[in-house]
Amino acid sequence: MAELKSNSAPSAERKLHWADEAEEEATSKSAPPKLSWGEVAASSVDALSICETEFNGFLDEPEALNINAVTTGDTPYTSASTFEDLKLTPALLKGLYTDLKFQHPSKIQAISLPMILTPPYKNLVAQAHNGSGKTTCFVLGMLSRVDPNLKAPQAICICPTRELAIQNLEVLRKMGKHTGITSECAVPMDSTKYMSFAKRPPVTAQIVIGTPGTIKKGISAKKLSIGSMKILVFDEADHMLAEDGFKDDSLRIMKDIQRISDHCQVLLFSATFNQIVKNFVARVINDHNQLFVKKEELSLESVKQYKVDCPDELSKVMVIKDRILELGENLGQTIIFVRTRHSASTLHKSLVELGYEVTTIQGALKQEDRDKIVKEFKDGLTQVLISTDLLARGFDQQQVNLVINYELPVKHENHSEPDYEVYLHRIGRAGRFGRKGAVFNLLMGGRDEMLMEKIERHFNSQTAQVAAWNNAEDFKGALKAAGLL
Ligand SMILES: Nc1ncnc2c1ncn2[C@@H]1O[C@H](COP(=O)(O)OP(=O)(O)OP(=O)(O)O)[C@@H](O)[C@H]1O
Ligand SMILES: [Mg+2]
User: Fold this and answer.
1) Residue of 85, 92, 433, 435 to mutate, ligand 1, most atoms within 8 A of C-beta
2) Are strands 437-443 and 359-361 parallel, antiparallel or unpaired?
């Protein structure tokens, strides 16, 4: 894989972002929002011209997923019940059917792809559930809109972490295998291979997927040409445009591109868009179609959520050891989320001392170690992965049945306030594309209970209590009820 490289060294004093990225920083302060997304939606309802067909009977995806559409202008969009309806090239259809083994578009694919692929190629802000197939929407969008005869960058996809950029590139390469379209990953490389942008050849790949810092540097160094840009995608877009995310870099890239290629289509995809981001999006993305989901309908029914009261930290370790690890491979793969790098390494040490094989990923590791740990997990060589929020968003591994919140996610600026979006993304690592899954939230004391209550209220989702942290039957019952045993 050809890689562009960032010249930013990880800073020891940097503040920890939700995703625990080591290499990318955001710095901006934004003006207060003027118009909320809700207001835009309401004022545009009269213009709604989408034709919806019945969405049910898909292979894995639950029928109940509810996505609302609001379009602007007078272009009618007919949702696609087959990939053929989208008039994709034979090369792309081959990739979808033969390499990815997809049979039908999922609901978000059926609705969003006609919006992406129909002239005048309007901007799109698309929200859909975790694991519902958003990657395919923007990957097919990029592959379809690129002119294969023009050997210059025409599509950029920006992701919050190197792991997600690499994963999305892998999907793109598989889907586009028969198209001849070229692609490149723009993420930081480890310091031993560093080469300044000035010394690198210009990017010739037609699609570039990467992290914001590296993409920004490629553009500034005039090594990543934006003159022929047709489509700009933000995956995990709410985080990419958030104050404590990558707002500065994202806006800068968007403005640079729009200044030169005024018809560049912008696509924003995420499972979550909180009100602050919605308001901001309404201000910065011109004339866009929207797909959105009510927050009360975002939790996946196929993923059962549990809470477990644990008297102290040792009991949390024992729950993982005796109730989860002892069941071994019967459970499929497990991700244990922790809040800080420090927690990641102390939990890792505790479990290794007890004789269990676990791997741990967090932003302070060397890039090549991060890549190795993810690859081993994706290849099924490791069963249990401890992670900071580095993997909370987008990480797709269908074999993950179980997510454990060793610590609940909280807002950086206020630890009494849950980070609702991160909670949803974490639990969405299980139950991909309608699969069954379970989540255990390990609560230690009143503060955790209060956080859990707030989360339940926010998403209107029920979290069942596991009666006793030290009772094997209680856990087996919970896992059975989730369909995992
Ligand atoms: N049409 C389809 N048919 C079968 N499987 C599909 C289809 N579309 C996507 N998938 C599979 O569903 C899984 C989840 O897809 P994807 O990672 O795109 O979800 P997502 O919506 O981006 O979720 P998240 O919000 O968590 O990032 C992937 O393993 C993908 O291969
Ligand atoms: Mg995704």
Assistant:
1) 433
2) unpaired
**Ligand (nearest to CA of 59):** 1
Q: Which atom of ligand 1 is nearest to the CA of 105?
A: 1
Task: Give the model confidence (pLDDT) of 335-356 as tens digits.
Answer: 999 999 999 999 999 999 999 9
| Burial call 370-400: b when 16+ CB within 10 Å, e when fewer | bbebbeebbeeebbbbbbbbbbbbbbbbeeb
Task: Render pLDDT for 138-153 as a digit per residue (tens, 0 to 9).
Answer: 999 999 999 999 999 9
CATH of domain 303-481: 3.40.50.300
Would you kindly state where each structural domain of the chain is located, as residue ranges? Answer: 43-297, 303-481
CA–centroid distance, 132 to ligand 1, in Å, is: 5
Ligand nearest to the CA of 101: 1
Q: Longest C-alpha distance within the chain, in Å?
A: 64
Token pair of 191, please?
Answer: 């310091």
Instruction: Say which CATH superfamily domain 43-297 falls into.
Output: P-loop containing nucleotide triphosphate hydrolases (3.40.50.300)
Q: What single-letter amino acid sits at 67? A: I
| 396, 421, 426, best to mutate for ligand 1 pocket (most atoms within 8 Å of CB) | 396
**Among residues 82, 64, 53, which one has the least CA distance to residue 129?**
64
Alpha carbons 274 and 292: distance in angstroms, whole number: 11
- 290 three-state secondary structure: strand
CA of 234 to the centre of ligand 2 (A): 10
Task: Look up residue 153 and give its two tokens.
Answer: 């960058």
| Of 199 and 19, the one with more pLDDT | 199
Same fold, 43-297 and 303-481: yes
Atom of ligand 1 nearest to the CA of 58: 3
Q: Rounded to whole angstroms, what are the CA distances from 183 to 174, 177, 207, 414, 420?
A: 11, 11, 5, 41, 34
Ligand 1 atom having least distance to the Cα of 103 = 3
Q: State the closest ligand 1 atom to the C-alpha of 398, by its place in the atom list counted from 1.
A: 29
| Separation between Cα atoms, residue 25 and residue 197, nearest integer Å | 18
So what's the pLDDT on residue 234?
98
Query: What does the pLDDT look like over 275-309, one tens digit per residue?
Result: 999 999 999 999 999 999 999 999 999 999 999 99
Q: Pairing between strand 68-70 and 288-292?
A: antiparallel
CA of 399 to the centre of ligand 1 (A): 13
Per-residue model confidence as pLDDT tens digits over 23-65: 443 333 333 322 222 222 322 322 223 333 333 333 456 555 7
